[in-house]
Structure formats: structure tokens, C-alpha cells
Design goal:
Keywords: Hydrolase. It holds the Pfam family NUDIX. It comes from Mesorhabditis belari. With about 210 residues, the chain is an alpha+beta fold. It folds into 2 domains: about 10-45; about 55-175, Alpha-Beta Complex (Nucleoside Triphosphate Pyrophosphohydrolase), CATH 3.90.79.10. Helices cover about 20% and strands about 40% of the residues. The protein has helices at about 100-110, 175-180, 190-205, and strands spanning about 10-20, 25-30, 40-45, 55-65, 70-80, 85-90, 90-95, 120, 125-130, 135-145, 165-170, 185-190. The strands form 2 sheets. Strands 4, 5, 6, 7, 8, 9, 10, 11 and 12 form a 9-stranded mixed β-sheet that branches. Strand 5 and strand 6 (about 85-90) form a beta hairpin. It is globular, with a radius of gyration of 20 Å. It starts with 8 loop residues before the first strand and ends with a helix.
């Protein structure tokens, strides 16, 4: 990846320090052009991004409609780097030749067992996940799931053998309240928590 035209740094001597099946780590020397400060930046990068794809993966904002109620669909996944269960959006990497929307539909089926009824929207551009550490990036896809559809009567996950994932349904109108009740029982991914705060604020502003 080349630096943007308005990059405030001189960058040189980029080297690969480690390369594995899923990740490579790099370091690069930099000089801030105004202060002339020099240093070394270390970073982590996926090696799985498909050619001609802007981003590595997709995160899915899924709303389940069932019996007249609305739920957000999250997943609780055991993450070895955190050594803990983490609450996340359904998500995954994009396969070669796959659209972002198709990846979202596939990952929803695999991780939650639910069949997507309707794709509502997809974000554009590049949404970085932790840009001080990595160039790992996603786009968001928002979907609806009809829980009264016979295909979703008894959803069955299609997990890979190394995955430990549970489906978590949270009523939309109490999503932030639920987070506060459970934030000490598991790690809640920052994106999920910020989404809950934003959704709660939106509901409050709507009622002003």
C-alpha cells in the first residue's frame, strides 16, 4: 500500500520481519517532515486480502424480526489473543472473487445459521479496525433476517472446526442496557459497544 499524497512523513526501509499463513509483520522507518523526528513503526498485516478488493473482510449489522419483536444478532466468540469470550458482530474475511454482500450473506449463515432476507446497505471506502497497529480493514453490511421465515425456524451454525461461536440475540430497544449488564461477563468489542451507545443516543434524540 502506497502512502497518500498528503502523507506528513518520509517513509523508507520497509522490511518484513515475519510471515505466516495468515499474517505478516513489518517495520518501517519514518521522519516527521516538520519536526524532523525519526523513528521505527512496527505493524501487522493480513496476507489473505483478495486481489482487486478494497478491504479484508466484512462486519454485519443484522436485525432479526421475529414474533413482532426486533433483535440485533451478535456472536460471542472465544478469542485466543484475548484469552476470553468476546461479543462481536458476525464477521469474516472475503473470499477470492466474492462481493462484500455475498461474503456477508455467507458469513451470516456460517456463524449464526440465519438466512439473510434482505441486504439493506453496504458502507463504502475503507473502515480500518486498529490503524495504529494494522491495515486490517472491513466494510459494513446491514441486513434484515425474517425470523418467521421457515428457513430460519431452526437455525444451525456451519462453523469451522477451530471456531467457538455462540449466537446472542439482544432486543433492539435495550441494547445498551444489555451491554452494561454483561460487560463484566465478557469482553465487548469496541465497535459493538460504540454502536450500542450510538443507537441508544439516536433513540433518545428521536424522542426529544
Amino acid at each position: 500500500m502506497n502512502p497518500s499524497a498528503d502523507c506528513p512523513y518520509d517513509l523508507w526501509d520497509e522490511t518484513i520481519e515475519f510471515e505466516g499463513r495468515w499474517l505478516r509483520t513489518k517495520q518501517i522507518r519514518f521522519r516527521e517532515r516538520k519536526s524532523k523526528h525519526e523513528g521505527v513503526w512496527q505493524s501487522s498485516h493480513r496476507v489473505t486480502k483478495p486481489a482487486n478488493c478494497e478491504v479484508d473482510g466484512v462486519d454485519i449489522l443484522a436485525v432479526l424480526h421475529k414474533n413482532g419483536q426486533k433483535f440485533f444478532i451478535f456472536v460471542k466468540q472465544y478469542r485466543i489473543p484475548m484469552k476470553a469470550w468476546c461479543l462481536e458482530f458476525p464477521a469474516g474475511l472475503i473470499d477470492e472473487g466474492e462481493s462484500v454482500e455475498a461474503a456477508a450473506i455467507r458469513e451470516m449463515k456460517e456463524e449464526t445459521g440465519y438466512t439473510v432476507t434482505k441486504v439493506l446497505q453496504r458502507s463504502e471506502g475503507v473502515q480500518g479496525l486498529d490503524p495504529g497497529l494494522t491495515d486490517d480493514s472491513i466494510q459494513f453490511v446491514t441486513v434484515e433476517v425474517d425470523g418467521d421465515d421457515p428457513r430460519n425456524a431452526h437455525p444451525e451454525q456451519q462453523l469451522q472446526s477451530e471456531e467457538a461461536i455462540e449466537v446472542v440475540l439482544v432486543e433492539c430497544n435495550r441494547v445498551l442496557e444489555w451491554m452494561k449488564e454483561n460487560e463484566k461477563k465478557m469482553h465487548i468489542e469496541a465497535m459493538v459497544y460504540s454502536f450500542a451507545i450510538g443507537y441508544d443516543l439516536g433513540q433518545k434524540f428521536k424522542n426529544l
